Task: inverse folding
């Protein structure tokens, strides 16, 4: 079998979202996937038209870019399984939280081309932020090609590997923080008499709009917050209550907890 452009081991939420992005660039015939759950892999291939592999090793030997979309606790065994099947020009792309390139290489008997990425689930709707940390052995052209493959999933940004645990805590886990905020704001609207679907729509679009204001204007979030807070108005009363309840401290502590956990996974 001719080598495909891209292979992916794992078709869970994150692996599936990224492969759907890749398919938009390469076409389905250039994507080879495998999952230990055969039904999951079959469903993904049926939906997207890509090629189903029969094993992890087939993916490893059958593609130039090999994505590892497996949980950190399973990564070591997968790496040891596929190590004999890798070619010198294969680029391994790992999205396992906390697992450093050095540790990945140790399980591969020195395979040189490794890139760590940290995507997030909004990749499924083309709104991800994806941190990319290539090893020194990876050619700039290979990193650029990876960015091209992932472009439909959202923004990509080169990031030093020492910051990857922070990226995991902020953007990898961050959508969950946003969902909690949306759900809570929706609950408040329901308490005020708004129907649930309308309440969730207002809450979600408001958070999306606030994020776009930060990204598109480049204005500090604190300044944007101040612009909404009229003297003696409703917003400053709400902000004061958030401060009273420790809103910002809770967010900071949550992100730090995720950061600590990411570092533990890498040990």
Result:
């Amino acid at each position: 079998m001719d080598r495909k452009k891209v292979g992916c081991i794992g078709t869970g939420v994150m692996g599936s979202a990224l492969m759907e992005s890749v398919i938009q660039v390469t076409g389905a015939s250039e994507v080879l996937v495998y999952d230990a759950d055969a039904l999951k892999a079959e469903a993904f291939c049926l939906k997207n038209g890509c090629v189903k592999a029969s094993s992890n090793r087939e993916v490893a030997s059958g593609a130039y870019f090999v994505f590892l979309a497996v949980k950190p606790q399973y990564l070591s065994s997968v790496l040891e399984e596929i190590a004999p099947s890798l070619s010198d020009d294969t680029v391994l792309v790992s999205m396992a939280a906390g697992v450093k390139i050095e540790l990945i290489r140790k399980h591969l008997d020195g395979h040189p081309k490794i890139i760590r990425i940290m995507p997030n689930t909004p990749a499924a709707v083309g709104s991800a932020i994806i941190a990319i940390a290539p090893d020194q052995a990876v050619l700039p052209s290979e990193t650029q090609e990876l960015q091209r493959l992932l472009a439909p999933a959202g923004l990509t940004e080169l990031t030093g590997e020492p910051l990857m645990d922070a990226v995991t805590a902020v953007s990898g886990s961050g959508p969950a923080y946003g969902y909690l905020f949306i759900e809570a704001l929706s609950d408040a609207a329901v308490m005020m008499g708004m129907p649930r679907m309308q309440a969730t729509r207002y809450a979600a679009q408001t958070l999306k709009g606030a994020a776009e204001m930060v990204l598109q204007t480049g204005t500090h979030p604190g300044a944007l917050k101040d612009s909404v807070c009229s003297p003696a108005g409703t917003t400053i009363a709400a902000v004061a209550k958030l401060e009273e309840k420790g809103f910002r401290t809770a967010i900071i502590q949550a992100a730090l907890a995720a950061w600590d956990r990411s570092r533990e996974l890498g040990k």
